[in-house]
From TrEMBL, chains A, B:
This is LacI family transcriptional regulator. Pfam families: LacI, Peripla_BP_3. Keywords: DNA-binding, Transcription, Transcription regulation. It comes from Streptomyces canus. The keyword Hydrolase does not apply. PANTHER family: HTH-TYPE TRANSCRIPTIONAL REGULATOR GALS, LACI-RELATED TRANSCRIPTIONAL REPRESSOR. SMART domains: HTH_LACI.
Amino acid sequence: MTDTAPRPTLEAVAARAGVSRATVSRVVNGGDGVREPLVERVRRAVEELGYVPNQAARSLVTRRHDAVAVVVAEPETRVFADPFFALQLRGISKELTAHDNQLVLLLTEGRDDHARVGRYLGGGHVDGALVFSLHLDDPLPELIQRAGVPTVFGGRPGWSDGTTDVVYVDSDNRGGAREAVRHLVGLGRTRVAHITGALDQTSAADRLDGYRDVMGDADPELVVRGDFTPAGGERAMRELLDRCPDVDAVFAANDLTASGALRVLRERGRRVPEDVAVIGFDDMLPVAEQTDPPLTTVRQDIEEMGRLMARLLLRDLDRRNGGATPAAVVLPTTLIRRASA
Amino acid sequence: MTDTAPRPTLEAVAARAGVSRATVSRVVNGGDGVREPLVERVRRAVEELGYVPNQAARSLVTRRHDAVAVVVAEPETRVFADPFFALQLRGISKELTAHDNQLVLLLTEGRDDHARVGRYLGGGHVDGALVFSLHLDDPLPELIQRAGVPTVFGGRPGWSDGTTDVVYVDSDNRGGAREAVRHLVGLGRTRVAHITGALDQTSAADRLDGYRDVMGDADPELVVRGDFTPAGGERAMRELLDRCPDVDAVFAANDLTASGALRVLRERGRRVPEDVAVIGFDDMLPVAEQTDPPLTTVRQDIEEMGRLMARLLLRDLDRRNGGATPAAVVLPTTLIRRASA
DNA sequence: GTGAAAGCGCTAACAA
DNA sequence: TTGTTAGCGCTTTCAC
């Protein structure tokens, strides 16, 4: 907890190197158009003085901050219940770091925070924003969109009407769900159920759509609502067994849900996969590999999603430099076969 | 992805309100020493123009950034395996937000990143840093300490020699462990084992110390090394059962470890708590409540730890304003009784 | 109580 | 290629 020492300025470096501030500035920012010997002298002076540019002064004139906000709607239990958030963040961080950008994390807790976030984003502290819009009715994303900050969303925003060109990164939830259900059908299962996620999230809705793509004509009783949690999975599985005792396969909206379902199946004496085959979604390793039996599931590359979000945003920020305007990106999923189906 | 609109400046507000820039500045920063009618006029002008101060310009002169870096050593599987990180972050975020500070997240991935973080912290972009130093041999914390940025650590740093006054926030790991083991002993158990955490982390070492405080004279075979993961817990439990078949209680270094141990105990046909009582650490709800049987455990208030870290740092930053220099804080733990012990 | 003026440290025309 | 100069938008003495 030392006090801040007075830091050397461009001026000081210039004096020491015997050149002008402008030259030092050039060298510090890449050094093109400065002759080698001078570059060398400046470099040495920088070194000796331990000069570090003052970001505030630089931003003041460049209007660039080399900083990106990551906005996460917080009350989401889900954000904490699974490593989703952390993994995505890691991907984002890596990409940002690779391009010398800083990550400003904005966690929101409610109404008040929305205003705060809006103000912050509108306040020109950051060059852009990466936003996770988990719920259909979340007012935040639109608010941000209106703030006029370049933004990339994580997951397809629910309010996206297809008209406005929102940029987002998402997994192919629908396609992945289709693949899972097809696999179940291919196993010869005929009573394939689906435990949904929280349906106010597009990922859950899309997975349900995927299920219906394949099982459109199936007994509607086979679809039961969950909420992405193990507890929700248990509840749903019980309901399912009561309603349709002949169910022989379950596609759960995520691995956590599947783990809950598995527990109930065991409790009720159903063997997995012999009596009931189970497939999850996510391939969350600590969950999928620990269940009994290990979970067959649909993998999505979460870290890559984060990386991609950052990449799209940075590209957009650079579009003046000839880059094209990015559009939404949907990443493929993979079926991972383990023992449960 | 709109282009940035030209934002109004202090100058513009001053013109509109018919006052000087200085007066507007005063109003914007609290408004003391300005007469009410003027305050009112300025406020209105700010409102009408949608004025938001330019942080860069302000920082340039005040040398304050109202921003704090949170540094997390990343490769830590643990950071992603449990909600620890997210919870702590939430606490930090809340406190920071309450004091109008921004959270800049620095995730590090290795050697190269250390230099980068050092540079960033030394570069005066933030007013202080909150650092998680998980491993004893992590070079980062010391590097940061040397950067001269006010810093608060999360968890007692391993290299803290007691001489230098590092400020940190930690749970009473040792005391909590003692309480857990005493509870086991109080239950009449005589062969109380301990599955440790990753011993290169102070939290694990401290919990082991707590165990020894109570069981100092016990069979050393009863202590077996884990790594804070369920898999580690399984491995350790197997070893334990082989080595000491008469074990009648287990204190696991955390809930994840305990869940692994529980699994093995079930597999080997030992009843919990009848044959073997089990206690965890953390009270990580999604884990502790979902185990079978539900886990008795030592709770630590993780979010509060985060909040406290931020509070200590902010207080230090304000110490010029009469605050005292903060010291380390150790939070108490609570034993939560469920069914496993 | 209010305003005028001097920078904070840097970049970016423009001259040389 | 290098230097000179004029701000970027704000806070903060210092006069009034």
